[in-house]
Amino acid sequence: MCQDNCNIKGKKFEHLKYAERRLIEKWYNKEHKNKSEIAKLLGKARSNIILEIKRGLVKNLTSELKEIWIYGADVAEEKYQYNLRAKGPELKISNDYDFVKYIENGIKKERKSPEILIAEIEKKGLKFKNKLCAKTVRNAIEAGGIFDIKLQDMIYRKIHKKKNKDREPFTKVPAEKSIDFRPKEINERKEYGHWEGDLVIGTKEKGSVLFTLTERKTREEIIMKLASKETIEVAKALDKLERKYGGKFYQKFKTITFDNGVEFRGYEAIEKAKRRKGKRFQIYYAHPYCSGERGSNENNNRLIRRFIPKGTRIDNISEIRIKEIENWINTLPRPMFKFKTALEMAA
Q1: Last-in-domain residue among 86, 109, 142
Q2: Cβ distance 103 to 137 under 8 Å?
Q3: What is the mean pLDDT of the segment spanning 57-71?
Q4: Which long-range contacts (CB under 8 A, 24 or more apart) does 320-327 make?
Q5: Listed residue (83, 86, 70, 121) closest to 100, CA to CA
Q6: What's the confidence (pLDDT) of residue 175?
Q7: Are 223 and 325 in contact (CB under 8 A)?
Q8: How far is CA 325 from CA 110, 180, 193, 216, 284, in A?
Q9: Average pLDDT over residues 132-142
Q10: Within 10 Å of residue 103's Cβ, how many Cβ atoms?
Q11: Residue 4 gets which letter from DSSP?
């Protein structure tokens, strides 16, 4: 028999037993221990005790006919058994503590998706009690109750939007600059050198922004810090890249597709080459409100937001940190490439 002053060691994901509910009833109602003390005595998480006490609360009349709330072990046990019958078979994940911690660490600390983590488990030959697919893990995370993971911890869930093929060409720039006139073979993503670009804004106040470029075939990412979101700053950034890559620049950059924001309207200044006569690449503009036409860049921008949330002053982000984020994206295993990275695809 368990003594009142003993510590009952339990696993984090192990359900409370009726005997433990009777102890909670005694400690909570008669000895007036708080929830933290009860959690420590039972070896459970404080959040579990809070939910358990909430489950078993009932009104009771004192000898002075005063209504008070107390915890009833029998009430809590009855509700627990009812819910157990109603929820159906228990997920296999809940009894695999090592697997749960591996997934939590991979998503929250290493910022990887369930698909990448499941592929790594198979590749490394790691052994857990159960073998589960990434879809089951995602469903369990969204349902809650097993993983200590919030949806905002996840790499974003992609939402597919239907393309409007009947949309008229964007008329605020020359017609030939509309994405409608971009060579159709670029859509096939078979040739390297076709990029999508955008700006990542930190705050609504004036200040530094991030200029992001994503290569369509490999998803290779380039991130550059600009002093402002003016067109001239975008042009300067591309001048810097042209100097960096020299003659290889013109093979690396063939086209760039931007949205139609005012910062990209000065296409003549952006296209003009600094190391040779004429243009350094061709610019095209996506249709208004069609971010899906630059979907690869939008996806990578969401990855950047995992490190630099909205409202962060980009002025305070160092160049070293920006390059760390760029490298993380470029070395992230991609399910679409059979878990090869963007750098491996570009090699």
Answers
A1: 86
A2: yes
A3: 78
A4: 322/210, 322/223, 322/224, 322/225, 323/223, 325/223, 326/221, 326/222, 326/223
A5: 121
A6: 77
A7: yes
A8: 12, 33, 22, 19, 27
A9: 84
A10: 27
A11: T
> Which residues are bridge partners to 340 per DSSP?
334
**Residue range(s) defining the domain that contains residue 301:** 175-346
Q: Which residue has the higher pLDDT, 286 or 64?
A: 286
Kindly report the number of other CB atoms within 10 A of residue 244's CB atom. Answer: 10
Alpha helices in 87-228 (DSSP H): 97-108, 114-124, 134-143
pLDDT surpasses 80 at 3: no
169 or 71, greater pLDDT:
71
**CA distances, 96 to each of 119, 170, 227 (Å):** 18, 54, 50
pTM recorded for the entire structure: 0.60
CA torsion sign, 145 to 150 to 153 to 154? positive
Q: What pLDDT, in 10s, does the model give residues 307-338? A: 999 999 999 999 999 999 999 999 999 999 99
Pair of tokens at residue 44: 């459970």
163 — pLDDT class (breaks 50, 70, 90): low
Any idea which of 7-11, 86-90, 134-138 has the lowest mean pLDDT?
7-11
Greater model confidence, 121 or 155:
121
- In terms of domains, do 24 and 103 share one? no
239, part of any domain? yes
Query: Smallest Cα–Cα separation from 323: which of 222, 212, 240, 254?
Result: 222
Q: Is residue 9 part of a domain?
A: no
First-to-last alpha carbon distance for the chain, in angstroms, is 66
Alpha helices in the chain (DSSP H): 18-25, 35-42, 46-56, 73-86, 97-108, 114-124, 134-143, 231-245, 249-252, 267-271, 295-305, 319-330, 342-346
Number of domains in the chain: 3
Nearest to 187 by CA among 260, 270, 286: 286
Q: Which two tokens stand for residue 207?
A: 């200040």
Cβ atoms of residues 9 and 44 within 8 Å: no
